[in-house]
Amino acid sequence: MAKVLVVTSGKGGVGKTTSTAALGAALAQMGETVVVVDFDVGLRNLDLIMGAERRVVFDLINVVQGVAKLSQALIRDKRLENLWLLPASQTRDKDALTDEGVGSIIADLRTKFDWVLCDSPAGIERGAMLAMRYADEAVIVTNPEVSSVRDSDRIIGMLDSKTVKAERGERVEKHVLITRYDQARASRGEMLSIEDILEILATPLLGIIPESQDVLRASNVGSPVTLNDAASAPARAYTDAARRLMGETVTMTVPLARKSFMNRLLGRRAA
Amino acid sequence: MNLLRLISGRTATAPVARERLQILLAHERGLRGQPELLGLLRAEILAVVSRHVVLDPEKVVVRMERGKHVSTLEVDIEVPNGFERSLAAAS
């Protein structure tokens, strides 16, 4: 049965799009049929992170408004044949999205894919609401930093009240994904620890993505970090998280980047 | 780790972040459900009192004050003069 998963956070810049691309690609690598849907109308970026920016012809709004068929708007990934992208519109207003329109597209996608990953825009406005509206599960991307944790708490409240599932008296299954985590700083007491964040948010943990330069490297070349360098620390962490989404039990570790001897000697962070 | 902190001369800031968040979120989570709760209370109080006294619905004010240790619920109902007479007539 298809699963609709929203990747959300409230706060901007915490890694929603990076995480959507990385988890989508990891699930596809495991053999699942996956579509990643960009809900950030007007500020789309998932196409860029996926490396498909020059292949966008039709978008989500075109499909909502009946200008294009869903099959015309879906872009197949060049690396993985079971990974697809539904881009957002770059020119339209976010008000062009309607609850009914999104509902019917999601229902359609459910019949074609194992996973529908919705990349939410930042904020708590209409776009973010519609991205989570039809979700079965939610990944709340959180940085170990006060404003991100606060906004995650707010989004958790919305997931429990504004989604179709919540309105039916059911629950959206929620997971916290901690990104940009720096183990060394956390153990020095300079950064909120995993335990602190989980205790405050009272939501189960999906994974811990270490702060890493591999993420920027992957986005530079338009490849999900899990595909760009599968052996890198963030890629391993995202792959573990994807396996947990599939129901596997995977021991929670913070994958460490491989440090060169000189860097280790000088106490530098890994490149 | 304490040794590291001594050498660097920096104090751990994460516990401060944690405490600030816990206080703030306790407050914000309280506010979240509040408008609905107060609206409901107001409607039900109005219904009960209106069964006995003719009221101007706008003169029913329900307010919640959240304190550190105790919270108070304030219900302010303005009744028209001579409402005792209408009570007597009704019974």
What features would you describe in this structure?
- The complex is a heterodimer of chains A (271) and B (91).
- Helix content of chain A is 41%, strand content 16%.
- Chain A is built from 14 helices and 8 strands.
- Chain A has helices spanning 16-29, 46-49, 60-64, 70-73, 99-112, 126-133, 146-159, 164-167, 183-187, 194-201, 213-220, 225-228, 233-245, 261-266, and strands spanning 3-8, 34-38, 75-76, 83-86, 115-119, 137-142, 173-181, 205-210.
- In chain A, strand 3 (75-76) and strand 4 (83-86) form a beta hairpin.
- In chain A, helix 1 (16-29) crosses helix 13.
- The longest helix of chain A has 14 residues, at 16-29.
- Chain A is globular.
- The mean pLDDT of chain A is 92.
- By secondary structure, chain B is α+β, with helices and mostly antiparallel strands.
- The model of chain B has no long low-confidence stretch (mean pLDDT 77).
- Chain A binds chain B through residues 145-146, 149-150, 153-154, 157, 186-193, 196, 200, and chain B through 1, 4-5, 10-15, 17-18, 20-22, 24-25, 28-29, 32.
SSE map:
The complex is a heterodimer of chains A (271) and B (91).
Chain A: E1 3-8, H1 16-29, E2 34-38, H2 46-49, H3 60-64, H4 70-73, E3 75-76, E4 83-86, H5 99-112, E5 115-119, H6 126-133, E6 137-142, H7 146-159, H8 164-167, E7 173-181, H9 183-187, H10 194-201, E8 205-210, H11 213-220, H12 225-228, H13 233-245, H14 261-266
Parallel strand pairs in A: 1-5, 1-6, 2-4, 2-5, 6-7, 7-8
Antiparallel strand pairs in A: 3-4
Helix pairs in contact in A: 1-13
Chain B: H1 2-8, H2 14-50, E1 60-66, E2 71-77, H3 83-90
Antiparallel strand pairs in B: 1-2
Distance between the amino and carboxyl termini of chain B? 77 Å
Could you tell me how far the N terminus lies from the C terminus of chain A, measured between alpha carbons in angstroms? 41 Å
| Quantity of strands of chain B, as a count | 2
Count of runs of 4 or more consecutive helical residues of chain A: 14
Low confidence ranges of chain A: none
| Largest sheet strand order of chain A | 3-4-2-5-1-6-7-8
Mean pLDDT, all residues of chain A: 92
Largest interface, with counts of residues having CB < 8 Å to the other chain, equals: A-B, 17 and 19 residues
Overall mean pLDDT of chain B stands at 77
Report the major sheet of chain A: 8 strands, mixed
Percent of residues in helices of chain B comes to 55-70%
Poorly predicted sequence stretches spanning 5 or more consecutive residues of chain B: none
What is the overall shape of chain B? rod-shaped
Q: Level of helix content of chain A?
A: 40-55%
Helical run tally of chain B? 3
- Multimer state: heterodimer
Structural class of chain A: alpha/beta
